[in-house]
């Protein structure tokens, strides 16, 4: 009988415990409401930390909607119940306002929410006025690049820049894009907070809690030293270097060899662009005008030349090739191009695994770097010095740009001097100012450079969705049912001009054909990178029956080792598919190792193709050199902090009076309970002297 009572008691305790857990979870669900969004995070370089972080346990602030400057003044002038969490629309998310909130301190402002109410927004760029201001071409031991004068904002490469991407904030900043989530916040604010402000301290208020604690601090040098020390003891990391992959391909396959000596007779024309973009918030930022347009042009140029020039043996110089390069991490002091230059200096490009000879700077005939193309109809060819190569290429570009036969109506002017745009070519010019680098760049006109709003609307893209063959070149008079004023046609025009000029450079013959770049390829390209990875072009460049891509555009931030490399992965596949030649005699089971690659193809049935694409490492040399001087400014030193979680939730924060009352009651109950236990334990002989013998034994 006693054993049965014990078992029953144990089961009763277990039931009470599980019931309490369920009730606790239900109570928790009633108390907190999650909010979906994206958080600002911390990055570091050799001298500073930038970005945002919450406190270790999470930052809590009372919601307050900012519609006017007067609403902001309310929070900055003795608010009644701090700390607050202002909800700020983009047009008020300015440098002046954010720095005022920062100066107010975490006791007044503990959280900032950026809400997607963009109707009154006219500009929104968080980058510096001079992007990569401290890492471009430098003269006379200067610490800043000489290619951009930050003191003359009107003539900088990003005159709308606020520099907030390079500021350090003592509170988390959380971006909320979903209208339903914003409505939820505003409803809570209006119901509990938006009245009788004088009594805020006397009642419960709607508040938000953000958890985005960053492990790293100070700068990259300190963070990496702590990480390496802890890792030696088997601990966790505090930060990781920004790291990704450059993607390259050659117009013609290179000859395999067992020799690793430079072939001086081999010559390359390098055509390059930037692969990445960035923004203040994790996982967001499409870089539509910033860098995606130039990647689209590079892809179209490569594809058109591939179609027009099928064999190197038919050219005047069979040893002449074109190297197409997409550099990753260029938003952070030219990580990809710096590493590429470093590898070439050490004859480490390409890697020995490719079984091809290394390429040196003497092998490069000239470099054409495609920069930002904000105004595609008005482009300049920038060079540091006036050279015969630059003059000849400018003449060829304008020959086709202004030809009445093609009707491109594009104007390309020359610009010689130090005022060159912040592109990958600066890494080459920094090594050698006489390097033959030419930069194709439009006048800066992007009001949303390096921000979450450089998206499909910023480039006015509309998907044509024609379901036609985009792998063939198009007739110059065939718009493929796409508007002549569309983004696709503008990319077609610039791509065709560049491809025609390079065609004449390679063949020594003027291009006389009617075929131009296909606007349908640009149409599918932008659909994949701006709207959805589950798209026809990505499917064709993947293995047959591969899982469909996610219905979201690929992330284009460089990330860290183990992070998302979607953009470089898809670019790798596109280069492979669009610059390859079909090998119908090779069966599927033998098409498994590079340079052979098995693609789904346009019809999805599968085809073996001989490719030329590959990766190179985009990791700054600063993390390879022993005892590197982190403050030297020679190489990029950017790292990204580690974190455990990003979360946001709203709840009712009790008033200070309520908290004091609950605490006081708890203290009183504790004292009374302590006294009762003391009395009972000291008088137990009297209280329990009449217990039956069977029960009394339990107390002995």
Automatic annotation (TrEMBL):
This is Nicastrin. InterPro entries: Ncstrn_small, Nicastrin. It holds the Pfam family Nicastrin. SUPFAM superfamilies: Zn-dependent exopeptidases (SSF53187). Keywords: Glycoprotein, Membrane, Notch signaling pathway, Signal, Transmembrane, Transmembrane helix. Residues 39-216 form the Nicastrin small lobe domain. One of its GO terms (cellular component) is plasma membrane. The chain crosses the membrane at residues 660-680. Belongs to the nicastrin family. It comes from Drosophila navojoa. PANTHER family: NICASTRIN. It is found in: Membrane. Residues 1-24 form the signal peptide. Gene3D superfamilies: Zn peptidases. It is a single-pass type I membrane protein.
């Amino acid at each position: 009988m006693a054993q049965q009572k014990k078992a029953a008691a144990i089961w009763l305790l277990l039931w009470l415990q599980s019931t309490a857990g369920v009730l606790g979870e239900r109570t928790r669900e009633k108390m907190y409401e999650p909010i979906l969004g994206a958080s600002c995070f911390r990055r570091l370089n050799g001298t500073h930390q930038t970005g945002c972080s919450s406190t270790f346990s999470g930052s809590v602030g009372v919601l307050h909607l900012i519609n006017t400057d007067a609403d902001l003044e309310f929070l900055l002038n003795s608010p009644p119940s701090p700390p607050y969490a202002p909800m700020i629309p983009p047009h008020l998310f300015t440098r002046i306002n954010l720095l005022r909130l920062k100066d107010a301190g975490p006791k007044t402002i503990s959280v900032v929410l950026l809400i997607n109410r963009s109707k009154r927004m006219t500009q929104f760029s968080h980058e510096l006025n001079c992007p990569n201001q401290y890492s471009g071409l430098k003269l006379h031991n200067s610490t800043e690049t000489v290619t951009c004068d930050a003191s003359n904002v009107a003539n900088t490469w990003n005159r709308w820049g606020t520099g907030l991407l390079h500021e350090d904030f003592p509170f988390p900043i959380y971006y909320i894009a979903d209208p339903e989530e914003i409505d939820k916040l505003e409803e809570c604010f209006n119901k509990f907070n938006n009245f009788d402000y004088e009594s805020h301290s006397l009642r419960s208020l709607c508040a938000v809690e953000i958890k985005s604690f960053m492990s790293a601090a100070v700068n990259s040098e300190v963070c990496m030293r702590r990480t390496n020390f802890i890792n030696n003891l088997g601990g966790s990391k505090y930060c990781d270097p920004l790291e990704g992959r450059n993607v390259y391909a050659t117009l013609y396959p290179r000859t395999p060899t067992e020799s690793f000596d430079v072939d001086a007779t081999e010559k390359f024309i390098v055509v390059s662009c930037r692969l990445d973009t960035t923004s203040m918030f994790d996982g967001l930022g499409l870089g539509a005008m910033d860098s995606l347009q130039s990647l689209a042009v590079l892809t179209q140029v490569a594809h058109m030349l591939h179609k027009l020039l099928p064999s190197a043996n038919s050219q005047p110089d069979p040893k002449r090739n074109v190297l197409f390069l997409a550099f990753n991490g260029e938003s952070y002091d030219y990580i990809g191009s710096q590493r590429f230059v470093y590898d070439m200096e050490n004859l480490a490009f390409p890697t020995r695994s490719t079984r091809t000879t290394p390429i040196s700077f003497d092998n490069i005939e000239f470099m054409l770097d495609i920069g930002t193309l904000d105004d595609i109809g008005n482009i300049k060819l920038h060079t540091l010095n006036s050279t015969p190569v630059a003059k000849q290429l400018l003449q060829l570009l304008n020959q086709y740009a202004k030809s009445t036969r093609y009707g491109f109506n594009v104007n390309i002017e020359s610009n010689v001097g130090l005022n060159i745009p912040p592109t990958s070519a600066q890494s080459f010019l920094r090594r050698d100012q006489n390097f033959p680098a030419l930069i194709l760049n439009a006048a800066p006109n992007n009001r949303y450079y390096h921000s979450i709003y450089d998206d499909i609307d910023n480039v006015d893209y509309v998907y044509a969705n024609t379901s036609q063959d985009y792998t063939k070149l198009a007739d110059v008079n065939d718009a493929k049912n796409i508007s002549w004023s569309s983004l696709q046609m503008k990319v077609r025009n610039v791509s065709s001009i560049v491809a025609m000029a390079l065609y004449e450079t390679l063949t020594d013959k003027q291009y006389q054909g009617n075929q131009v770049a296909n606007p349908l390829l640009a149409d599918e390209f932008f659909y994949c990178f701006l709207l959805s990875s589950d798209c026809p072009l990505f499917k064709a460049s993947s293995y047959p029956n591969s899982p469909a891509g996610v219905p979201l555009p690929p992330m284009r931030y460089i990330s860290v080792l183990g992070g998302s490399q979607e953009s470089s992965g898809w670019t790798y596949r596109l280069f492979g598919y669009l610059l390859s030649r079909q090998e119908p005699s090779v069966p599927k089971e033998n098409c498994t190792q590079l340079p052979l690659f098995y693609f789904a193809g346009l019809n999805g049935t599968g085809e073996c193709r001989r490719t030329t694409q590959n990766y190179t490492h985009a990791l700054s040399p600063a993390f390879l050199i022993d005892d590197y001087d982190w403050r030297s400014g020679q190489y990029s030193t950017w790292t990204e902090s580690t974190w455990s979680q990003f979360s946001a939730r709203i709840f009712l924060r009790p008033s200070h009076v309520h908290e004091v009352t609950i605490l006081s009651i708890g203290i009183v109950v504790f004292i009374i309970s302590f006294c009762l236990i003391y009395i009972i334990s000291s008088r137990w002989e009297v209280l329990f002297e009449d217990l039956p013998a069977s029960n009394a034994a339990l107390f002995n």
